[in-house]
Design goal:
- The structure holds two protein chains of two kinds.
- Chain A is α+β, with helices and mostly antiparallel strands.
- Chain A is built from 16 helices and nine strands.
- The two termini of chain A are 38 Å apart.
- By secondary structure, chain B is α+β, with helices and mostly antiparallel strands.
- Chain B has a single domain, classed as Outer Surface Protein A, domain 3.
- Chain B is 40% helix and 30% strand.
- Chain B contains three helices and seven strands.
- Chain B is globular, with a radius of gyration of 13 Å.
- The chains are: A alpha+beta, B alpha+beta.
- The interface between A and B is medium-sized, with 14 and 14 residues.
């Protein structure tokens, strides 16, 4: 059903006649389609197009679609409120905060922000502001995670969790991204960010368009494109920003060391949604055979593992294969192999090795 | 006081919708989202009517009185069904007991 959903989403919003034809001729199992759309985060987008095109949907699937969409709207309203409260608190504390993905992206790309599924809040701050941000968010009930996992995240990852009494969780990014053997530093992206106000009036920052598209693409690749929503975001972002500087984007991908990841994102975007990024953004693709192999694991042709260690293994293999430089790949693989060994050692010989090896 | 009692709820118990629960009506039926647990629930048409009346009237006895005028169901069965649903909603944290009535 992923293929059918891909074909439908490829027609939204620019080809309503094609969407209509696909719905009538291509969709055989509407319930499965609705459930897939829910898992892929595109339920609200699909539902809007179905309503606009007046597509006759079997009653059981229509009821499911309407109810799931209603729940999503309730949830998105909650997430948007939480984002505004957090941004106001951080702004009052004088902390420059960029909103990554989430409602701040949704309201810029989509006809209605609630159409886009947002599960948590991703906020980008400078690393030096972590403690101040945590203190600013404390009155809202958020607590910064601590313990070994937090220690590991501070050293090697890009965000820490802040959990409140109620969801959504805040992912406080102090690096924009860590993966593919490189780090996208928060400070560099914040320095180029633009001031913005959310739909609810909260002040924040959004990344410069080329940075934001690159970030979204690299983030999607890092998650093996497991949600179609992430690819659809890219498609809308490109259509809403026709004056993107593709040469600049390619230059930044090279500078950050994420050319291969971006090249794969472009491949998958073209294959699944029929969207072609301009040639200036081609970038250096990973080796042809390697890219073809990697693509099979992430573009829907091979069913992804449902859960468990295979999900992590797949993610690590894809990331390792997409590191731009041999040194990055060696560093990336070395770090994760060492981590696995440390964790095993801690589990089997807890008295003999440091407790922090469990992280 | 009379009336049936299910669990610790009675018809004279005052209940209200949990403020941490948001709801939306879809084709005459409510979907509920518990913001604390991020869990959603669906109510059928009768359950949705109870949900609405609870917010308007507060007491389960008044809910039963209103529903008796709307549905051709024996009063005893109505009270049993309303109490059963109210207990279920309370157990799931969707309804909260405001205070015991007199």
């Amino acid at each position: 059903m992923t293929a059918a959903l891909d074909r439908l989403m490829a027609t939204i919003p620019e080809a309503p006649e094609r969407f209509d034809a696909l719905c009538r001729d291509d969709v055989t199992d509407w319930i499965t389609l609705v459930e897939s759309a829910g898992r892929d985060g595109v339920l609200g987008i699909l539902r809007r197009e179905i309503v606009l095109a007046r597509i006759p949907v079997p009653e059981d699937a229509r009821r499911l679609l309407e109810r799931l969409e209603a729940v999503e709207r309730l949830w998105q309203a909650n997430v948007a409120r939480a984002l505004d409260r957090a941004l106001l608190a951080l702004d009052a504390a004088g902390i420059q905060t960029a909103a990554l993905k989430g409602p701040a992206l949704a309201e810029r790309l989509y006809p209605e922000a609630a159409m886009r599924r947002c599960t948590d809040l991703d906020l980008l701050i400078a690393e030096r502001d972590i403690e101040r941000a945590a203190r600013a968010l404390e009155p809202l009930g958020y607590e910064l995670e601590d313990g070994l996992a937090a220690l590991y995240a501070r050293r090697h990852h890009h965000h820490l969790h802040l959990a409140g009494r109620c969801p959504p969780v805040i992912e406080l990014h102090f690096r924009a991204y860590v993966g593919f053997g490189v780090t996208l530093p928060a400070e560099t992206l914040l320095a180029r960010a633009r001031a913005h106000h959310t739909g609810g009036g909260a002040p924040c920052w959004v990344l410069a368009p080329e940075d934001e598209l690159l970030y979204l693409g690299v983030h999607a690749a890092g998650h093996c494109f497991d949600r179609l929503l992430w690819l659809y975001d890219l498609k809308l972002f490109m259509s809403r920003n026709p004056r993107l500087d593709w040469a600049l984007l390619a230059e930044r991908a090279r500078a950050f060391g994420v050319e291969a990841a971006w090249a794969l994102t472009r491949d998958v975007l073209k294959r699944r949604l029929g969207v072609t990024a301009p040639a200036a953004a081609t970038g250096r693709a990973p080796a042809r055979l390697g890219r073809r192999l990697v693509a099979r694991f992430v573009d829907g042709r091979v069913a992804p593992p449902a859960a468990g260690p295979l999900v992590t293994l797949r993610q690590l293999l894809v990331m390792a294969a997409l590191c731009d430089r041999p040194a990055s790949a060696a560093r990336f693989v070395g770090h994760h192999v060492a981590r696995i060994v440390r964790r095993r050692a801690q589990r089997w010989l807890p008295a003999l090795v440091p407790a922090e090896w469990a992280a | 006081m009379g009336g049936l009692a299910v669990g610790r709820l009675s018809l004279d118990t005052r209940v209200s919708q949990n403020p941490e629960v948001v709801s939306r009506e879809v084709e005459g039926e409510f979907v509920l989202l518990d913001l604390e647990s991020a869990t959603y629930f669906g109510l059928n048409q009768v359950g949705s009517r109870v949900w609405t009346l609870v917010s308007e009237l507060g007491s389960l006895r008044k809910v039963c009185e209103a529903m008796e005028r709307e549905y051709a169901v024996p009063r005893e069965q109505l009270e049993r069904d309303v109490l059963s649903l109210a207990r279920e909603l309370r157990d799931k944290g969707l309804l909260v007991v405001a205070r015991e009535g007199r």
